[in-house]
Amino acid sequence: MLKHLEIALFIIFLLLNSVFSQYCFGQLFPLLVGGNQDDTKLNAIAFDSKRNIAIGGMTFDSSYSSSATSTTSVAIASLVDQTGVLKWQKGLIDYSSILTIAFNTDETKLIFQISSTLHIRFVILKKSDGSLSSSQRMTTTNMIFYDPTSISYVRLCNDVNGANGYAVKIQTTPIHKQLLFGGYLTDKSAEQDLSPLSGGVNLLKASVFNNYQNSYFIVDIKNINLAGKSYNKYVGALMAYHPGQSCVPFTYSNQYKTAIKVASMSLVDIDISHFYILTSSGSAISTNIISNNEILNNWCNNYQINIKSTSNLTIQYDLYTGQKDFDIKSFSSNPYCYDAKYTQTSSLIYMSNVTNMDGDLTLLDQQLPQYIQFIAGSNKLRVNTNSLLDVKEYTIKIDSILQQIPSETSFKYVLVKIKNPCLTATITPQQSDEQVIYRKQNGTQIYEFKPFIFSNTNCETVINLVDSITLASYDSTLISYNNLTNSYQIQTNTNVVTANTEKGVTLIGYYKHGDSNALQIQVKLRIQIYDCDTSSFIPSAYSDLIYKLNDPTVTINLGTWTKVQSYYDCGMYKLQVYQINQTSGSLIILPDFIIHDSTHNKITIQTSDSNNEGNYQIIVSGNLLNYPLAKNQSQFTLQV
Questions:
Q1: N or C: at which end does the chain have fewer Cβ atoms within 10 angstroms?
Q2: Does one domain contain both 181 and 261?
Q3: Residue 297, domain member (yes or no)
Q4: Same domain, 281 and 316
């Protein structure tokens, strides 16, 4: 069974959330409407999804409409746009008061429930300019059919099925719902108690609007001590709870108290039989509408919402790092408006290399260079350059206009320093100078330097090989090097060497665009190529020896002959022992009592034969097995 509700207020708010931010309005509240020479009282308020506020009530002020007298009221309606500016005011001459307001479903029209001496009527005005759209009369009572299955809509109709009616959209939110109910107005509590304003004669009316970010109410004012305002008659005012939108300061605790009292209500079932016909073909009467452009409120001499700049900023960009986006802190409003929009432009004011004759920087005021972009939509400054010509400092000015209040402007400066990071970058070698020894006719030998450590990998580096003495070109017939394929490898062709050879090369590393006064990193390599045919080695020295007949065997160890550097890759050597003919000087074989043990590299002597007495000149001769020309010898005298 459908249930219908009779409540104390025609528009009711079940909850009121605390408001911590606000919209950016083009003016401050209160907004006074309907005249101030005689009583003006407001009864209704509504709010659409684009933040337009509609208010309605009545005025007895003849300065507003000649049809109004001290005893005869004229219905008045006003629309305040999303910036807080009064868009239009209308007087409905044929009616005495506006009781309730609602936006239609597409929010292009406003539906006013109005009262005249004869009828309760619904008048529909265009939201755009307040002109008349249609007028329908409810002949018996102001009942509205409410469909609980579609909480966003009510329908003005006559039958239980809700046919032939006019759909009205009602605001909803996830937490609380603003519902338009049928019924008649009753006074459930003392209106004065609901007011957050000083001066007990002010009347906070039955309709109050609220959503997450806004809270507005209509009030009939006579005396506002805090603002120093007083009137002889009631003045209708649209007011905002948020201190940043209001010239009248009050606390959130008062707002909360107000919300609780406004939400008091009683619910009773209404018999569905009370609904009567209301269709689009219902009888209509002409509605005389006048416009009024008078702006009454002069409370707010200084607008309290203004644009707030952030501090100037310095950013540094290093060449060769590619595109970089730097966050530029956005402008804001004070008090904070969460929907504030800004029109931002940028210009180049100074460059560090452009000066006047007196040395001061020249004022440029020109477009940014193409390698610096200000992206207003995301508040970023984008820099992208690899050119040394761009290394300088740029002073950029960012101007901002608060779109909701174009008179509110501000600016800030961003100093962009484009640096050459290579000027301070470092290079660290991983090895000391070295030497390598190669044998002639031994093919291509490869040497790998340990890589340099560059502190900045974005800077262009140069690695090259030069002759250690001339610091110019190396001997390319002997050494091969390609810094494009492998900048740390050199190849030495030993097959082109005909004799002992020594070369020195130096591997150099530096930043191409680095500090020209900085030392280059150098690692030297000494290359020695030897010829085994001309190589030599140092024999061991042997002392002269006296041997007595019948003595035990004497052993002479021939030892290891000293290997010089050029000997390492020339192969093994062989030692041979001979006796020198003292007459002819030729080499002859050893006598039988002197034995050369080549396996154990020693000489043994033992004899008891007196025939062996005498002096013997012994020679130890050594030569390379593969290179017979490389030889040496050592001599000693044996006396038996």
A1: N
A2: yes
A3: no
A4: no
Q: Contact, 144 vs 162, CB < 8 A?
A: no
- Please, are residues 41 and 54 in contact by the beta-carbon 8 Å criterion? no
Instruction: Please identify, among 530, 564, 586, the residue that sits at the C-terminal boundary of a domain.
Output: 530
Helices (H), 128-187: none
Last residue of a domain, one of 225, 253, 285: 285
Long-range CB contacts (< 8 A, 24+ apart) of 356-365?
Answer: 361/395
Range of the domain at 508: 423-530
**Cα-based angle 508, 513, 519 (whole degrees, multiple of 5):** 40
Q: Provide the residue type at 463 as one letter.
A: I
Please tell me the distance from the alpha carbon of residue 304 to that of residue 602, in angstroms, as a whole number: 113
Q: Which residues contact 162 (CB under 8 A, 6 or more apart)?
A: 145, 147, 155
Q: Within 13 Å, how many C-alpha atoms sit on residue 445's CB side?
A: 17
What span, in angstroms and rounded, lies between the C-alpha atoms of 400 and 234? Answer: 42
Could you tell me how far CA 37 lies from the centroid of its own chain?
Answer: 57
- Whether residue 246 sits in one domain with residue 136: yes
Maximum C-alpha span of the chain? 172
In a domain? residue 6: no
CA 242 – CA 216 distance, rounded (Å)? 8
**Within this chain, do residues 429 and 399 fall inside the same structural domain, yes or no?**
no
pLDDT digits 0-9 by tens, 265-291? 333 333 333 333 333 333 444 567 888
* Nearest Cα residue to 45 out of 29, 60, 57: 57
Q: Are 139 and 278 within one domain?
A: yes
User: Is 591 part of a structural domain of the chain?
Assistant: yes
Which residues in 449-593 belong to E strands, given as ranges?
Answer: 453-454, 461-467, 479-482, 486-493, 501-511, 521-530, 545-546, 554-557, 573-580, 587-588
Note whether 74 and 212 are same-domain residues: yes
For 389, the 3-state DSSP assignment is helix
Are 44 and 99 in contact by the 8 Å Cβ rule? The answer is yes
pLDDT digits (tens, 9 = 90+) for 290-336: 888 776 766 665 555 778 878 899 999 999 999 999 999 989 887 67
Question: Could you tell me the CA-to-CA distances from 275 to 9, 56, 145, 156, 570 in Å, in that order?
Answer: 19, 25, 7, 9, 123
Q: List Cα–Cα distances, 417 to 312, 317, 318, 352, 511, in angstroms.
A: 14, 6, 8, 10, 21
Is 233 in contact with 37 (CB distance < 8 Å)? yes
